[in-house]
Amino acid sequence: MRFTVVIPTRGRPEHAAACVRAILAQEAPPPFEVVVADQSDDGATRDAVGADPRVRVERVPGRGRSRALNAGFRAASAPWIVVTDDDCRPAPDWLAALTRAVDALPGRSVLIGRVVAGAKGPGAAEPPAILDRPDPFEVRRRGFEDWIYPNLAFPREALEAIGGYDERLGVGTRLPGGEDNDWGYRLILAGWTIAYRPEPLVVHEAWRSLDERSALKRAYGIGQGGFYAKHMAKLDPFMATRLLYDLGRQAKGFVVAAVTARDRDARGHLAYAGGLVYGVFSMGELIVRGVPERDAP
Q: pLDDT tens-digit profile of 107-138?
């Protein structure tokens, strides 16, 4: 077994099944398994995914993408763990490209691959989390960008080094975002390298409407504010700098959008900035209450 592919999902059986089908149809893949970490309230995901022996549907109690991912990591049996989302569709040579890429990585490295937007129908919005660069690069130092996307492969040693995802953060929680950014930041602080290679490709489906995509702005801001607050509480001054930078970026974006009469964009910048502030205080409250990053296995 070379890879365990972990797919978190909740209440989207059609998406999960389409993602699994794309993985099962891989061309000349290495040995792999798929773990669908399912937080749905019924068995629709299991029914939709089917009964292929390479696929396991793990029912995960509670809510939150981070909780689902951590459960999937615990269930994984391969030395390399791969993460994608249920609304992503891996290219036919995805696992073969991942194999070539990880074989060439130095030690203490994780891999991120290319994420491109799917075709947009009428009224559809571009999906979030797009990373479409033609050339490879490596990230070894903290900065003002975030580098974990839903096309991620890492050796089990990364979990042993920094642990899993912070279950206070992410979709389905009070702080609905920031979980990938937090995990990547912790990798960098621990001396790991995040390596981008464009060959392993997934397509992020464009299924949300423009209004639905706009509504995510505040949610993502809340999660990002929670991520900043977590590390500011650990006396990391760089996070305070990042928060101020982000607020300034949103203010600039709001002014430009307002001047050019792009009302939807202007509202989005305001929503994100308000979410940042709310997320900072919300994470502060969780820290004061002693809410842990993860439940015990």
A: 999 999 999 999 988 878 888 889 999 999 99
